[in-house]
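Friendly challenge for the regulars: who can give me the C-alpha cells for this chain first? No prize, just bragging rights.
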Amino acid sequence: MAETYFLLLVLGFPVTILVVAAIGGHFYRGGYEDVLDWKPTRSPQREAELQLGEIDQMLAAQNKYRRLRGAPERSLEEVTLHTASLKLYVDTLPPPDST
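First reply, four minutes later:
Bragging rights claimed.
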C-alpha cells in the first residue's frame, strides 16, 4: 500500500504540474514574448553592422594570406562579382538525375 502512495506521488505530481501548465498555456491569450519577457538582444541594424564587420575581417584575412603567397589582393567588388558568376553557373546546370 505504501508503494502505491509513493508511486502516485512520484509520477502523479509531475504529471499534474504538466497538465495544469498545458491547460494554462492553451487558455492564455497573450504572446510567448510576454510570458518569457523576451526582447531581442540586438537590433536588426546592429546585426547588419556586425555582419559587415565580419565580411571585412574575412576579406582582410584572405588578403593577408594572398600577400604572403605573392598573389594580388582582392576587393569586395571582385569577390562579389566572382560569387555572382558562380551562382549564375550553378543555376544554369541541369538538375541531377533523380533515378
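The mean pLDDT is 88. The first helix runs from residue 2 to 27. Your move, everyone else.
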